Amino acid sequence: MSRAEVKIDFRPGSVQLLQEQGAVPAPRVLVTGATGLLGRAVYREFQTHDCFVIGTAYRRARPRLLRCDLTDEDAVRGLLDHCKPDAIVHCAAERRPDVVERHMEAAVNLNVHATSVLAREAAALGAFFLYISTDYVFDGRNPPYGEDDVPNPLNLYGRSKLEGEREALRRCPGAAVLRVPVLFGDVETLTESAVTSLWLKVQEGATESCTLDHSQQRFPTHVRDVAVVCRKVCERARQDASVRGIFHFSAKEQMTKYEMAVAMARAFNLPSSHLIPLTEQPAAAAALRPVNSRLECSRLELMNLSVEPRPFTSAITDCLWPFTPDKRWRQTVFH
Question: Can you give the pLDDT at residue 75?
């Protein structure tokens, strides 16, 4: 199958797909939240696998991406009417639990209402709809959690994502939901991920000690692995109507924030004695977190749609070395 020559007109208010006559069309994939940590990885993954990818963003819109307010129903309808995607991967979300607690209305507009509109329009187009959700739909009291286990979110973020799941599956019966845990990857700033933000604590060793949570169990997962799963699910869904409903994907290494920070320190031969494990539930957070929301991922594995997750130490090292004082670190360590 030859890849179609497709061009897009990026003038404000204009989105036109122009396809050369006679060319075999490449699958058209729309990725929402394409400037976010996961969205960037998903966009790149499809782009490198013979797909025509359209990325949307809003506040952080960049050249070659389409600016669209997903909470504006008319804007969403116009976007999909012009782009006519074969698949939509909905990565855009307010994913910070403490922010959701403080700005509930805005978060619900994005996490629930925008999802409902996108799913409805996807169904009208006959497009496959993949909604990214979270392990925080579970309360963490009885892990591991399978796709059929009853959700019981502890915070507003988890509730909003669960409502988004329900809207996606109600509005678009052929849709799929992919629940994932805490994510990290090639960040633009350290604070873009709750995982890489720990590097700031690691680097405080020369100045002061700091406490880090050592009670809540997490499964840090690289966005590139999630992106591959998204692509595989979308590809299979084109031929297999049974690819629908809820799926789980997660890395397998169980770690607290304290253990992640210690692993980072060891990877870069830095001291970790200033990191103090806190075994009680942290009181400062606005939103409650589940103690252990481990996801059971056999459905993806049985359908051969999963990937082997990258080991945490090597993956986090790749993410953090650009933020080290000595940019030659890679050469000095590996040679």
Answer: 94
* 176-180/275-278 β-pairing: unpaired
Nearest to 313 by CA among 258, 261, 237: 261
Residues 261, 262, 264, 270, CA torsion sign: positive
Strand, helix or coil for residue 212: strand
pTM above 0.85, yes or no: yes
Query: Residue type at 130?
Result: L
Q: What is the distance between the alpha carbons of residues 240 and 89, in angstroms, rounded to a whole number?
A: 17
Burial zone of 43 (CB within 10 Å; 0-12 exposed, 13-18 middle, 19+ buried) = buried
* Residues β-bridged to residue 19: 6
How many Cβ atoms sit within 10 Å of the Cβ of residue 69? 16
6-8 and 17-19 beta bridge pairing: antiparallel
Residue pair 57/67 in contact by the 8 Å Cβ criterion: yes
DSSP state of 111: I
What's the chain's average pLDDT?
88
- State pLDDT tens for residues 57-75: 887 666 788 999 999 999 9
CB 80 within 8 A of CB 30: yes
What's the confidence (pLDDT) of residue 64?
Answer: 82
Report pLDDT digits (tens) over 229-256. Answer: 999 999 999 999 999 999 999 999 999 9
Nearest to 266 by CA among 317, 327, 217: 317
Torsion angle defined by CA atoms of residues 288, 152, 40 and 116, in that order, rounded to the nearest 10 degrees: -120
Looking at residue 137, what DSSP letter applies? Answer: G
